[in-house]
Amino acid sequence: MSPKSQDVKQSGLFGFLAQPDAPTKSGVVILPTIFGVNAFVRGYAETLARAGLAAAVWDHYEGLPLTTDYEESKARARKLSDPGMHAKVKKWIDYMMSELALNSVGVLGFCLGGRYVLLAAAQDKRVKACAAAYPSIENPRLPNQEQDAVALAADIRCPVHVVQPGHDHVASVETYAALRETLQKRAAPTVWQYYPDAEHGFMHRKEPAANPAASVIASPQLVAFLKACLS
User: What is the pTM of this model?
Assistant: First the structure.
């Protein structure tokens, strides 16, 4: 952990914050996978900090102990709500713009968080960049998913960057096609990465070999997209 990284538990905010050594006016709210604020997403926050962006990871389980158990994580995730997510992400953006004095904030999400960032960017016009890595958009929606992420994506005014794996057991090929069509009808730019041999969650899964091979290409492009949009 770098000297400017810290866990956050204050004023109703739970998560992790990594800040660059030099002053910055730009930052990213990261919405993690169902596994929460684990080593992968903490590491990604610090990668963004080294690139000059303040990075806050929202802990959607608000202080619950970390678990690597898939079924437990899935059960936790299914207790979340779309309006609840929006309220918490809004609070993080408020914090970054007031307490950290940032003037340009983006959102980055992985899996579960990838779906959430689409909703957040559609509803909070302060968001200047939206990056969604293998967004978990299920069809039909789960009982706790009140909002249609594909339909609401039409309302996103900022640039959007989507990372699609060829083997995604959560979002179907048809869902990705619908999302791409919706995004490309907007006036704002859309960037699309496609990795035919990679799997859902490939950035934090080392097997098969196609996953880390895709990550080597995908990750720097995500960072570059956020830096370009937020600078």
Answer: 0.96
